[in-house]
Amino acid sequence: MIHYNDYVIELIEQEIVTMFNDFSKAxxxxxxxxxxxxxxxxxxxxxxLAHQQELMTDIVAFNEALREALKEMYETARRIYRxxxxxxxxxxxxxxxxxxxxxxxxxxxxxxxxxxxxxxDAICDGGYNPLYRDGVSFSKLKLPxxxxxxxxxxxxxxxxxxxxxxxxDPELTKDLNxxxxxxHLFDHTNFALTDFIFVRDFRTEITMxxxxxx
Length: 214
Fold this sequence. Notes:
Blueprint: H1 7-22, H2 30-49, H3 52-84, E1 93-101, H4 116-123, E2 141-143, H5 151-154, H6 180-188, H7 193-196, E3 202-210
Antiparallel strand pairs: 1-2, 1-3
Helix pairs in contact: 1-2
């Protein structure tokens, strides 16, 4: 059984919230904060990985919701790029798209209290979680350089086998077709597995830039 309110985790999270509230971003000691998040992640993941069967429904649901959010972002960014090619700046246009977890603490998470949103704000902060600055993917979608890249290429499903389940129970997850952004969140960022698998909402950032070469 997973204990979301483990006493040691509670103490670490209280310290994260206190530090996040007490210091402006300009004066934050980010390496120290990252160490707290890394320790928290290690403890939570050790517990979660011992009880993966309990989490399978949410792992599957999150992977599908993430895939759909990225598919919508991918298609929207390509449409924006195509629609602006006929403009005066079309040949110099660059489009960048990134997908992020919702800024609102997930309502599906089993643990709910008044400090969870502040904790979520800290975990989602790019200073605490530097490999999350570009979002859920290894890197943002860039156009036109990535225009020939299919959606399956973008989410890593053209790599054999099409299942990014490193670090999870190989038997339980062998047929899940977990996408590369799932692996990025799980393995590379400072989110614990039980932070993000309860997320069902996402936000997209798409920016356009005119590069003239001058």
